Amino acid sequence: MTSAIQRKQHLVAYGFILPFFAVFATMFIAPLAYSGYLSFFAHKLVGGAKFVGFENYVRAFQDPAFLFGLGRTALILLVQVPIMLGLALFFALALDSGRARGSKAVRLLIFLPFAVPGVVAVLMWGYLYGRDFGLTGQITRALGLPPTDFLSDQLILFSIMNIVTWAFVGYNMIILYAALKSIPSELHEAAEIDGASQWRLAWSVKIPMIRPAIFLTIIFSVIGSFQIFNEPKLLVEIAPTAIPQGFTPNFYAFNVAFVNQDINYAAAIAFLLGFVIMIVSYVVQLSMQKREVRW
Amino acid sequence: MRQGARKAAVAITSIAAVAALTLAGCTSSTDPDDNNSPGPDDTGGQITDAQREEALNTPTELTFWTWVPDVQDQVDMFEKQYPEIHVTVENVGQGLDHYSKVRTASKAGTGGPDVVQLEYQFISSFAQTGELLDLTPYGAADLADQYVPWVWKQVLSNDQVLAIPQDSGPMGNLYREDIMNAAGVTEPPATWADYKTAAEKVRANTSSYISNMAPSQGAGWLGLLWQAGVKPFGYDGGQNVTIDVNSPEAKKVMAYWQDMIQNDLVSIDPDFNDEWYQGLNQGKYAGWLTAAWAPVFLSGAAKDTSGLWRAAPLPQWDTSKPASGNQGGSADAVLKTTKNPIAAYELAKWINNAHDPALLFTTQQNFFPTAIAVLEDPVFVDQESDFYGGQQVNKLFAEISTTVDTDWQWLPFMEFAYSSFNETFGAAVAAKGDLAAGLDAWQDALVDYAKQQGFTVNG
């Protein structure tokens, strides 16, 4: 008897979610499937297309450009991400402690670089890094020191890590700060009555309480590190010999598709990178869970 | 439950990452050879005058992709001449951005332009993928003797005419007379040996460099090889390429530059960025070995130094046989996907070949012309430039243009060639290292790529 009404409700519900699935299928699943399909072909400038199975994937594993790119992003993950998240956590705790003066202004200032569009930020850093006429060049010259070439092939990776750190410290800080705000105040009060210092409070109460938020920022950063694209794409204009085609895997996929005219291989690289991200994310997740048990 | 949700979140974000990446690779793999364009190939033989009349008097919409500033003025002239034809001008970017969009549209078979601007160095790349319409049946071959011979060769592939020349860039030497005088150099160097002597004086007596040699300026370095008579590339229009970038002749030229670089006689900054513009404005560079389009470009880029610059031919390897190379310059081609090939051809031809619009290119866009009639037009030749102290710079470059070797060819994959140039030779320049080894590495990269793409490679 009620089933007619239920059916109607179900239909309406499906009607509401249909637009999402329509867009999801056409803009997401279809391209994904299509590029998966493309990755099993080779289309040469001479000779046209033919089915090659997993050849593109095998090729990627033997391609130094791709492997070096993966290595670079792994280095960013190991060096830059801990620094960035450490800073974000420090700022979030400092703001949350209520001891810092002008905390609203500080919060805004730290968040501001994230509000600047990434492309604009990279262009600004391009000027700051300038050896002859950029800001760092002018400062070192004024101090009578030899200018540092932040865009040389030795320093470019460091320079990019620096840009990424500035861009995302504020973003991660906001996530952690919001999580800190949700900790019930009785907990600090109890700890403070017990005589815990701010450090002790942060270490033993706050950080364990916001572990899920920290975990979230780590996963975002893992994915973000492997996806780095804007920075090399824009800096290659001013540091053309320091940034090779395969600087990061994402940048490499773009270059393989649009410079080397090899869309099939680019599709394979993109899929491989996706798998790498999935595996690393999963490994990170597992290790976090283990730690949770130990604590 | 929460763990499950978390896992799902990770899985979804990871899939999203994959999808976002793969979107970049999502273009059709349709073989461009499948494109059937209506044209003389279907009807056979040359276009008749009656067909041309009919096409030009039928209401037609054309799209023209170009990065030429103010080209609308030439297009307006065309529309006035042929009122039935309407042209939409679109600027989709310059260089690589422009080319990748053309390729994407061409592969999709829709959404592309009818007429497209291409640099000479990329014509064979687009010809190789079968994207350009052969303009011979439309009467393009008749234009051959109206152009400087080396320029005309640039738009040919076997017997096909693939584009109508627009502008060119024979190379010369722009220099700051004031800095040269301060360094004790009173004449522009006639030979490369003189140039080195002058560079030493400039370094010793001023804070400038005689020139900047940008590590990534592949077209400029190739122009210098072109001047020296080196033939690094060859392409037969089919599947045979010749790659010989590390020939003894090329290494001889680069040995000269290695010496200059390692003795700190030239600077090696990347070009066309803020630092470089500042360098030009503030006298870090006392000169620039560059192309015929540069004199006007420089007068805009280094406004503060107006009146101080002069122009001269490139220093020579052999003064008895003055030679130059070319850097840059472009042409307008018709894509095979066009539905209106006759009107598209007429647009490409008319704006570049009819005297009024072609001359306007030299006075308004400041292009260096390719048509002999314009190169000899007093309006162009006798122009005196204040930026160059009243020198007749156009006249000088018009003379240089006749000394460019006609036999230069490009590879059918110059996008890759330039990018690997930066990673091999360019990196050697930036490291002040062994340029001959840089050439060897470039040779290997080019040969590997060519073989992998199915070409047959000759020495």
TrEMBL record, chain A:
What residue ranges are annotated as transmembrane? 12-34, 74-96, 108-128, 155-180, 209-229, 263-284
Record SUPFAM superfamilies: MetI-like
Q: Which InterPro entries match?
A: MetI-like, MetI-like_sf, UgpAE/MalFG_permease
- Kindly give the CDD domains that the UniProt entry links to this protein: TM_PBP2 (cd06261)
Kindly give the PROSITE patterns that the UniProt entry links to this protein.
ABC_TM1
**Looking at the keywords, is Transferase present?**
no
The record's listing under Pfam families reads:
BPD_transp_1 (PF00528)
Q: Quote the subcellular location field of this record.
A: Cell membrane
Instruction: Show where the ABC transmembrane type-1 domain sits.
Output: 70-284
The UniProt keywords, alphabetically, are: Cell membrane, Membrane, Transmembrane, Transmembrane helix, Transport
- Look up and give the membrane topology term: Multi-pass membrane protein
Please provide the Gene Ontology terms (biological process) for this protein: transmembrane transport
User: So which domain of life are we looking at?
Assistant: Bacteria
Q: Gene Ontology terms, cellular component aspect? A: plasma membrane
Q: Which family does it belong to?
A: Belongs to the binding-protein-dependent transport system permease family.
Protein name as it appears in the record: Sugar ABC transporter permease
Which organism is this protein's natural source?
Answer: Pengzhenrongella sicca
Q: What are the leading ranks of the lineage?
A: Bacteria, Bacillati, Actinomycetota, Actinomycetes, Micrococcales
TrEMBL record, chain B:
Give the superkingdom in one word.
Answer: Bacteria
The annotated region (Disordered) lies at 28-47
Q: What is this protein called?
A: Extracellular solute-binding protein
Entries under SUPFAM superfamilies matching the protein? Periplasmic binding protein-like II
First and last residue of the signal peptide = 1-19
Q: Does the keyword Signal apply?
A: yes
Low complexity: which segments have biased composition? 28-45
